[in-house]
Amino acid sequence: MLGMWQNSIRSNQAALSVAKGYVHAMDFMVYAYLQGAQDREAKHIVEESNALQKPEIPSTEQTPTGGILAVYTAFAAIPARYAIERGAWAEAQALQVRPTYPAADAITYFARAMGAARNGDVASARTNIEQLRALEEALAKSKDDYWAEQARIQRLAAEAWVASAEGKKDDALKEMRAAADSEDACEKHVAMENRLWPMRELLGELFLGLNDPAQALKEFEASFQAAPNRFRGFYGAAKAAERLGDQERARAYYEKLITLCSEADTERPELTEAKAFLAKPSI
Questions:
Q1: What domains are defined for the chain?
Q2: Which terminus of the chain has fewer CB atoms gathered within 10 Å of its CB, N or C?
Q3: What's the Cα-to-Cα distance from 47 to each of 59, 78, 79, 93, 264, rounded to whole Å?
Q4: What is the separation, in whole angstroms, between the first and last Cα of the chain?
Q5: CB 132 within 8 A of CB 124
Q6: pTM of whole model > 0.70?
């Protein structure tokens, strides 16, 4: 159901009606809600997942499939998604680390590092990057090669944004492209079928931040192959096209964004911007 967010919401609601503590389904739902700017609904899921993280509730009760890793990654991903998808960088930086398993812990440290980097707090970003590096090394030492690679990809991306904050454009692009290329070469894992943040899309955001809209648009459009119908992807592509002076393509992507958010319960700044653009007469 990749990109079919309302269908995903309904199917996972059905799953939760049978298994009320199925946190993996909650992760799918919060991801889907956030793509359509249904942020209030997403917040309810965040609050429900927080309530489930109690010592007296065995993790085996939070998954009907018996896959414990999916429980850990979902608990880490839900609040991280809620911050990142909304561009709430201070919230991302302040995420609480609840140690469970290195692959899940890496999700939180990555979100914290990105939040700090996007806030310009390089020192805090570096501290979280070092935690990511330690988790990467621990996973590699235990021969968990897949998740060691995922931690490495996250570390590279965070380092790229730190380099960008420090004005090191070439280093930033080199590391971010390496992260995107590495992720493209990896299969998805059942414990994290919806990746936290598509690295190809994040590369597009970096190019946009570095005032290279042509390359940004190329990366955003490439990201749609593996991660279609994403809020940040549509907005980024629209913004890049607008900066290029390609009004027709900008309009097309802003229209896609508005359609995506037909059931939005929050007026994000990006939606306000999209509506203002579309209200202007076409040239």
A1: 1-197 (1.25.40), 198-283 (1.25.40.10)
A2: C
A3: 17, 10, 9, 18, 19
A4: 37
A5: no
A6: yes
Residue 31 to residue 42: CA distance in whole angstroms:
8
DSSP 8-state class, residue 265: S
Question: How far lies 257's CA from each of 17, 33, 75, 183, 272, in Å?
Answer: 30, 14, 28, 25, 11
Angle between the N-to-C axes of helices 231-244 and 213-223, in degrees from 0 to 180, rounded to the nearest 10: 150
Task: Map tokens 């570096």 to a residue.
Answer: 126
Whole-number Å distance between alpha carbons of 250 and 267: 20
Judge whether 272 and 255 are in contact, CB under 8 Å. no
Query: Which of 48, 109, 59 lies closest to 80, judged by CA?
Result: 109
Nearest CA to 116 out of 98, 89, 135 is that of 89
Cβ–Cβ under 8 Å, residues 5 and 36: yes
What is the maximum span of the chain, computed from C-alpha positions, in angstroms?
62
Tokens of 101: 């398993």
Please report where in the chains the tokens 């991903």 appear, as a residue. 77
Distances (CA, A) of 165 to 119, 128, 256, 259, 279: 9, 15, 31, 34, 34
Helix ranges restricted to H, 119-268: 122-141, 145-165, 169-184, 199-209, 213-223, 231-244, 247-260
Parts of the chain with a pLDDT under 70: 1-3, 55-67, 283
- 3-state secondary structure at position 42: helix
Residue for token pair 């965070």: 158
Summarised one tens digit per residue, pLDDT across range 59-118 is 544 444 445 888 899 999 999 999 999 999 999 999 999 999 999 999 999 999 999 999
Q: What is the pLDDT of residue 283?
A: 61
